[in-house]
Design the sequence.
């Protein structure tokens, strides 16, 4: 196993400084304080975040404040872990919470109890209060927004008056209505969108704290102060805040008719960055390298939007002559029943039917169209994020009857990739950087991570892959204050089976992370099928950046062959 970066850092920056910890090859975690919710620690986090964002060091992409830590996301092609640690340690020595601007107060109207707040009566009974007293206590003070996470725009606020501190539900709800106001432990929050949830629902607000149609979709951000204002049911009903979903706009250049959408066919690009601090994950292709190469086959920019598909795949009919390119997993594609190759461009005539069979290798395939799939940009990306109904084709997976358009009528080129250059798929060894919380685990658990094989379980999707294998035992607690996540992070819940966070995974999480897969290797995990074996190899933090350089060199060296006929 490789050396642990924190051992070096403790000596380098001194015991009084915050801890600087790795999160894979693209994340630096700066941690203040202990395991308790602290306004002082959170203020230090926000001060550092403001200082870093005001003059970002070279390579820094975004900052994500959480309760007690700041996740700094960076580009490993533009900086090194050593260089960034030194720069951030110096900035941290100067960052002063006293320099933070005054908190912006925000009033949130709430209709308490009744149908909007089904748990109010139970909370009152448990607390030994009347419902009116619960409402008075909850609305009688301001709350600090410590962080946003869980879902886009979800604010973690606190702290509650001691008499309102009740436990979460023993069995979380599968469906919590959007805009529900809730409490749990020391915290209160507002569910911005419909989602699962285990907090106690005491009311609902007509205010949309997250609305992607606004120029600023997020009403709240870390550091705000919030006061809840009781309103009557009649006031709530006058403006319940419900928004109707609009159908996806028709493309002026329709190319494909969806006859069957398959299990999960969505529009994806390289994702939307810069919004993790608001709880919005990156999304984008599960295999970003495959997306890039597939786009290059028809002359698109590498990040153009394409269709991402898995088994069973879609059935698509060309509505006019159109070029396509296929790459990624081999889902046995056919055109009018005849075998069609992957990692190559194809010409379809009007009426041709493209179908997919059982996968021969890999899990996620890509279909590129000239100029990219023609859907609107939402927050600088066309990627679909299903949990929030965001981006892509109306924020959802493709369905029969959908028409898919392309950005331009003709391809810039028609190419194939020689088989010797195909990106590898299937069972694999992937590189992992230990941390930021490997010290939450026993030595046997850390050893098992890098020595034992793991298999992809039956529980895997665009948010995360749960792995079967040896139980990774925690030293004590299996939970921590929520902190930042990136795709590739290896979260380990109390059961001891690691979950690899994927592009649609949450931007924050409350389970310890024993390590994180380096970015370019994550596609190997994503392309592994159920039951396939994955092994982890620990590498030093600075050495992990080799993966990004290797991938960039591979793309730069690609040589294609022209498709004729």
Sequence:
């Amino acid at each position: 196993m490789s050396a642990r970066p924190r051992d070096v850092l403790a000596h380098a920056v001194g015991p009084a400084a915050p801890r600087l910890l790795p999160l894979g090859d693209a994340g630096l975690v700066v941690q203040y304080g202990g395991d308790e919710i602290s306004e002082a620690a959170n203020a230090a986090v926000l001060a550092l975040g403001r200082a870093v964002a005001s003059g970002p060091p070279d390579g820094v992409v975004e900052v994500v404040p959480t309760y007690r830590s700041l996740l700094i996301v960076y580009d490993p092609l533009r900086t090194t872990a050593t260089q960034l640690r030194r720069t951030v340690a110096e900035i941290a020595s100067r960052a002063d919470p006293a320099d933070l601007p005054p908190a912006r107060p925000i009033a949130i109207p709430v209709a308490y109890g009744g149908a909007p707040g089904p748990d109010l009566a139970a909370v009152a009974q448990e607390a030994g209060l009347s419902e009116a007293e619960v409402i008075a206590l909850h609305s009688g003070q301001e709350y600090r927004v410590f962080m946003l996470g869980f879902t886009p725009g979800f604010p973690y606020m606190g702290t509650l008056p001691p008499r309102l501190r009740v436990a979460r539900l023993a069995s979380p709800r599968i469906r919590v209505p959007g805009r529900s106001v809730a409490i749990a432990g020391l915290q209160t929050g507002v569910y911005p969108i419909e989602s699962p949830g285990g907090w106690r629902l005491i009311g609902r607000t007509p205010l949309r704290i997250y609305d992607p149609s606004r120029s600023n979709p997020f009403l709240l951000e870390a550091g705000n102060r919030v006061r809840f204002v009781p309103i009557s049911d009649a006031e709530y009903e006058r403006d319940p805040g419900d928004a109707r979903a609009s159908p996806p706009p028709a493309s002026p250049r329709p190319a494909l008719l969806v006859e069957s959408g398959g299990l999960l066919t969505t529009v994806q690009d390289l994702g939307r960055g810069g919004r993790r601090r608001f709880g919005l994950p990156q999304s984008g292709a599960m295999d970003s390298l495959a997306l890039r190469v597939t786009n290059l086959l028809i002359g698109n920019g590498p990040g153009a939007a394409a269709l991402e598909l898995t088994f069973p795949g879609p059935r698509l009919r060309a509505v006019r002559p159109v070029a396509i390119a296929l790459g990624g997993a081999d889902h046995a594609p056919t055109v009018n029943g005849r075998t069609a190759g992957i990692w190559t461009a194809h010409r379809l005539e009007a009426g041709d039917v493209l179908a997919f069979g059982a996968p021969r290798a890999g899990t996620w395939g890509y279909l590129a169209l000239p100029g990219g799939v023609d859907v609107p940009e939402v927050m600088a990306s066309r990627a679909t994020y299903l949990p929030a109904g965001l981006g892509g084709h109306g924020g959802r997976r493709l369905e029969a009857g959908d028409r898919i358009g392309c950005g331009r009528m003709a391809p810039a080129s028609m190419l194939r990739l020689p088989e010797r250059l195909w990106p590898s798929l299937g069972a694999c060894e992937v590189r992992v950087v230990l941390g930021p919380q490997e010290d939450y685990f026993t030595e046997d658990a850390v050893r098992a991570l890098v020595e034992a094989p793991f298999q992809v379980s039956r529980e895997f999707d665009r948010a995360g892959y749960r792995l079967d294998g040896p139980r990774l035992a925690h030293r004590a607690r299996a939970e921590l204050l929520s902190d930042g996540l990136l795709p590739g992070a290896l979260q380990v819940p109390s059961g001891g089976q690691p979950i690899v966070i994927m592009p649609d995974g949450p931007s924050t999480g409350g389970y310890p992370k024993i390590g994180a897969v380096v970015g370019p290797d994550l596609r190997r995990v994503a392309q592994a099928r159920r039951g396939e074996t994955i092994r982890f190899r620990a590498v030093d933090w600075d050495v992990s950046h080799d993966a990004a350089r290797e991938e960039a060199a591979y793309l730069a060296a690609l040589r294609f062959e022209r498709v004729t006929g």
User: Anything to note?
Assistant: Residues 191 and 551 are 39 Å apart (CA to CA). The first helix runs from residue 5 to 13. The chain has four domains: 7-99, 105-222, 254-421, 428-554.
